[in-house]
Amino acid sequence: MPDTVNAQDHVKPFVYETLTTKALHFSISEIQSRMQTLKPLALDLEYTRTMMGFLLFNGRPDTIGMIGLGGGSLAKFCHANLPQARIDVVEINPHVIALRDMFHVPPDDARFAVRRGDGADYVRSVPHPLDVLMVDGYDTEGIPPALCSQRFYDDTRGSLQADGLLVANLHMGHCDYMLHIGRIRRAFDDHVLIVGDRNCGNCIVFACNGQRLQHYRPSPQRRPRHFDLAAWRELAPNLAQVAAEFEKTTSERTMEAVRTGR
User: Within a domain: residue 1?
Assistant: First the structure.
């Protein structure tokens, strides 16, 4: 991917440390990422654990793309617990990438790479179709327009395998929140599940390029092979929330179909 961005075009983040945590900030009022010092692989922020809800629909992805590195929480977690997956992370801000060692982001190797580039360019030219694409690309102004346009979501669908999943972190307080949701619904023919965060204004959107969401049946979840037991237990409440939201959404859609005769 060509390097078309300059370092001076991007805000330099800072790291705020306490006795137990290390956090990445663009401003002191908003946390971009947070790591527990004694548990650097743990997902400390609630919304990141909810994003891992894709495991309900695909517990063994072979290819994972990520737009937005931040402190590398999701990248580290997937690298540690999904050893079969090839993981590509795209981050546009070189100052963020420069902090990767401070947040224990693993070095690049045959199955893991952090590259500097534009996420909108990435989804138009992925090197291989993705099983899962996780979009959590924020800057000082919020979600960049290029990462929430109709073209971006259309290109996102095109970057996925036949039953691939988009997992996007949106903020419900954004003035264009419903516009962004509408764009995702159009791009994915309304094969969409929306799960609100219980502790803040985030919502996680799961969208499927195919019928995987429709074929899912909530049931007791089995821990994927090689997945750390403690990490799986930490995810359990969030997986249960995603499953419950799926059942609720499915029931509402069934009732609406009966009401309208469709």
Answer: no
In the chain, the number of structural domains is 1
pLDDT at 210 over 60: yes
Give the other-Cβ count within 10 Å of 205's Cβ: 21
- Quick: pLDDT tens for 118-168: 999 999 999 999 999 999 988 777 889 999 999 999 999 999 999 999 999
Q: Provide DSSP, 74-91.
A: HHHHHHHH-TT-EEEEEE
Q: Is residue 2 part of a domain?
A: no
- Per annotation, catalytic residue among 118, 131, 136, 197: 136
CB 51 within 8 A of CB 134: yes
CATH of the domain at 189: 3.40.50.150
> What is the number of helices (H) and of strands (E) in the chain?
8, 10
pTM, two decimal places: 0.92
Q: Is residue 228 part of a domain?
A: yes
Q: What is the pLDDT of residue 159?
A: 98
| 136 annotated active-site | yes
